[in-house]
Amino acid sequence: MNKITPNTIRSWKEGRRKISALTAYDFPTAKLLDESGIDLVLVGDSLGMTVLGYPDTTQVKIEDMIYHTRAVSRGVSSALLVADLPIHSYGTPELAVQNAGRLISAGADAVKLEGGQACAEQIQAITGASIPFLGHIGMLPQHVLEEGGYRRKGRTPEQRGFLIEEAKAIERSGGFAVVLELVESATAAEITRSISIPTIGIGSGTGCDGQILVFHDLVGYFPWFTPKHAKPESDVAGEIRKAARAYIERTRGDS
Ligand code: KIV
Asked: Which among 21, 60, 61, 165 is placed 20 to 30 Å from 53, CA to CA?
C-alpha cells in the first residue's frame, strides 16, 4: 500500500472516496488499524480520557502527545499520521511551530489544533514551516471547562455563519482538511460545500467528506461513557472482563 499524504487526502475532496479516520494511542492498535486500511490515524488528545483516565483533555501535556505519537508511529506505515497539539501548547505562533516540530520529530506526518480564526496566526506559522496541518472546529473539547459541557454547534444562523468563516480561515491558512466535531448536520454539509478542502466529521452527519471516531468508542473499550454518535462494532470491554474472570477462576481453581 502506498503512503497516504496530506495531498492524497485533499485530492479526495473531488468525491473520489470518503476519508476514514480513527484515533490510536499505542503500537498494536496503530498497526492493526493500518493493516486494516484506515486512511488517517490521529493520536488525539482524547488519550487524556481513554488512556490516562482524566475527566477531559484539559490536563494533557505535549510530553504525553510526544510519548504516544512515538509508539503509534512505529505501527503506521500507510495511513497518514496526525498528532494533536494539546491545550497550552500553541499559545503563540512560535510555540505552535516549536511543539508541532516536536510532534513531527516523534513521527507524525501532520498536526492538528482546535480553533479557526482565533488561531490563524498559529496555523499560518505551522504551514509556513512546511508542517502539514489539519483543522478542528465546532465543539472544541479543550474549551469544555469554559463552556460548561460538550454542546452541539451550528444550530443558529449566527453559529452557522461563524463556523463557515472558521472553516474558510483554516483553508486560507493552508490546512489540508478540517475536522467538524458535533456540528449540526445541515451546517456540516453547508461547510463541506463552502470550502475546497475535505471535511472530516465526528457526530456531524453524513454530509462530510469523511468520518473520524475515537477508537475506544468504535470497539466498545470505554464502557463508562459512549457518545450518542458512536455505534460500537464490538464489545472489547466485555471480552476483557470475560477473559479476566476466566483467568481468575482458572488461577483460583489451581490452588
Ligand atoms: O482528540 C481526539 O480524539 C479528537 C477527535 C475526536 C477528532 O480530536
From this structure: 21
